[in-house]
Amino acid sequence: MKFSNYLKTDFYKLKKSNWLWLMPIIIFGIMLLLYVLFLALVILAKKGNVEVDPTNTIPLDGDILGKYLMFTAPSESNLPIILMVASAIFVCTEFKSGMTKIRISRGANRVNMFFSKFIVMAGVAAVYTVGAYVLSTLFSAIFFGIKGFSAQDVGYFFRGIAITLYVNISIVSIYMMVAYLIRNLGGSIGACIGVYILGGVITSAGALFTEGVAREIFNCIPSGLLTLAGSTGELSSANTIEIILVPFVFILLCNIISVFTFRDRDVK
Amino acid sequence: MNAITTNKLTKVYKDTKVVDEVSLTIYKGDIYGLIGNNGAGKTTLLRMLTGVAKPTSGSFTIYDDELEMQHEEALKRIGSLIDFPSYDPSMTAYENMKFVALSLGIDNDERLKKLLQCVSLDPDDKKKTKNFSLGMKQRLAIAMALVGNPKILILDEPVNGMDPTGIFEIRELLMDLNTKCGVTILISSHLLAELTKMATCYGIMSNGKLVREIRGEELNEMSRPFIKVVVDDIKKAVPILAQTFVNGNDFQILPGNTIHIFKEDETISYIEDTFNMGGVKVTEVAKCEGNLEEQLISMLGGPKSHDEIF
Fold first, then answer.
1. CB distance B51–A6 less than 8 Å?
2. How far away is chain B from the Cα of A3, in angstroms, using its nearest Cα?
C-alpha cells in the first residue's frame, strides 16, 4: 500500500475532527486575553496606578511592548498543552473506536501508520505555530502598534517561528509516544500532564540548584527551549547546539519507542 | 485451494493458553462456522487471523501466502468484523466507509453508497454513528468489512443485536456473496440455528482447542430423524443392534444406555420386539426429529442442568 494512502486516510480523519477547529479558538482566546491584560496594565501604568518594578523583564511601555509580545506571545499561548490534547485525541480515539484495528486487519503496515500520524500531527503543530505568530503580529499591531521593528528583528522573528515549530514537533513526538504507550484518552492526557509538570519541575530544580553547563543540561527540556524562541539577539553557541540537538534527540528517541510499541503490541 | 490454513496456532496471555495449537483448514468457497462456548478462544483466533493479535507460536497462511510481505498483501483480501462493531462515532456512516476506502486506496464513492444500501443504511443520512442503534452499527460494520471486495470475510457475531428482519437480510447477503461472488466466509456465532442455515463446514472449539471439524453434510447425516431407545443393559443390546442393523451408520450408542437408531422406516413396536426377544428390556422408546442445533450443542458438551437451582 502506498504511503500516500496512509496520509490521505489520516488527513481525512483530521478534517472530520472537531478539535482541529476548537484548538485554534482556544489559542485565539488565550492570546486575546494576554493582550487585553497587558493593555490594561499599560493603561494603569500610564495613570500611575501600577508601580512598575524596575527589575521587571517585561516592558510595560506601549511602544516596545507590541514588539516584545509579538515575539513572546506564541510561546505563552500554551501550545504544548494544546498539542498534548490534540495528539492524545488523534491517536487514542482511533484505538478506542476500533478504526486502528480495522486498518491493521486490512493489511495496513503499522510502521507506516505511525509515521503517517506523526507527519499529520507535525503538520498540525506547524499550522498552529505559524497561526499563533500571525495572531501575535496582528494583535501587537492592533493593540500597541509595532514600532522599532528593524530588518534584523525580521530575522529574529522568523528564527523564533522556526525554533517554536521545531520544538513543538519534538513535543508532539513525546505526547504521541505517551498516547501510543497508554492508548487510552484519559490516561494519556493524565500522563502527558504528568510529563509536562515533571519537565517544569526538572527545569526549575536545575535553575535553583545548578549553574553553568549543569544548568543548561537541566534546561534541556523541549518546552524549556521555547523561551529561546522569544529572544531577540544572537544565541550563544551552547544555546544553538541545544536548540539543534535536543529536539532532534527527543524526536528520534520518542519515535523509536512509539514504533516498537505499536509494532509489537496487540490491538484491542 | 485453501483459503485459510492454521498450523498449531497458539496464543498465551500471561500463563493462560487462550488458543491452544489450533490447526484448521478453510477451503475456498466455504462458509465456515466457528462455534464454542464463551471463553473457548474463538475471538482470539479470529483476532490472530486478522493480524490485530500476534500469535505466541504457530503460523497461518491466507491463500497459501507464507512470507510476511505477502501476508500483509493477503490481509487486504480479508474483510472483518471482530469483537464489536468498529466505527468512528463522530462520523456519519458514509464518512466511516470513506475512511476505510481511503485506507485501502479505493476511490469509488458509488460503490460505497451501494454497499450501505445493501445493508439497509441510507448513504445520505447525516446522523453521526454514535447515535445509531446496535443493529445499525452492526450493519455498518458489515458494510465496512465489504469495502474493497474482500475474498474472505471474517465475522465475529455479525448479527448480534439485530432484529429478525436484519438477521434474515444479512444471512441472504452473506449467502449471495458466497454463492455469486465466491467469497469465503469464516463466521463465529452463538446463534447456532442461524449458523446451521448457511454454514458448509463447522469448527468446534473448547478451552482454546479445536476439538472437531465437521462438514455440513456430515452434520446433516448425524442430525437425521432417529428413534431414541433406552435399554437396561447396553452390553447385551450391542450384538442385537449389530445383527439387526448391518450398516454401522444406522445406529449410535450414547452414554446412559441410550441408542439412536437412524432408520425412519422401522416401527417402534418392531424395535421393542427385537430387543425383548434378545432378553433386553426397553425402558424408553420414542421417535425424534433431527436437529442440527441440538447436535452441535451435544458436541459442545451438552446443556448445563439447572436441577440444583430448582
1. no
2. 10
Output the tens digit of pLDDT for each of chain A's 268 residues: 789 999 999 999 999 999 999 999 999 999 999 999 988 888 888 887 666 666 666 666 666 788 888 888 888 778 888 999 999 999 999 999 999 999 998 989 999 999 999 999 999 999 999 999 999 999 999 998 877 778 888 899 999 999 999 999 999 999 999 999 999 999 999 998 888 888 878 877 877 777 777 776 666 677 677 778 877 788 888 888 888 998 999 999 999 999 999 998 888 7
How near does any CA of chain B get to the CA of A26, in Å? 21
- CB contact (8 A) between residue A9 and residue B99: yes
- Asked if the C-beta of A47 comes within 8 angstroms of chain B's C-beta atoms, the answer is no
Rounded Cα–Cα distance for residues B266 and B264 (Å): 6
Which CB contacts under 8 angstroms, 24+ apart, belong to B13-21?
A: B17/B208, B18/B44, B18/B208, B19/B44, B19/B45, B19/B48, B19/B55, B19/B208, B20/B207, B20/B208, B20/B209, B21/B58, B21/B209
Structural domain boundaries in chain A: 3-264
Cell of A67: 514588539
Of B52, B76, B79, the CB nearest to A266: B52
pTM of the model: 0.83
- Which member of B47, B53, B87 has the closest CB to residue A97? B87
Q: Please tell me the total number of residues recorded for chain A in this structure.
A: 268
- CA-to-CA distance for A247 and A172, rounded, in angstroms? 10
* ipTM score of complex: 0.86
Choose the closest CB to B103 out of A108, A267, A268. A108
Nearest to A168 by CA among A55, A264, A74, A90: A74
Q: What is the rounded CA–CA span in Å between residue B75 and residue B145? A: 12
- Give contacts of A 64-123 with B, CB under 8 A: 93-94, 97-99, 101-109
Q: Residues with Cβ < 8 Å from A254, sequence gap 6 or more?
A: A170, A173, A174, A176, A177
Residues of B in contact with A18 (CB under 8 A): 90
Q: How far is B104 from chain A (nearest CA, A)?
A: 7
Nearest-Å Rg of the Cα atoms of chain B is 24
Nearest chain A residue (CA) to B154: A105
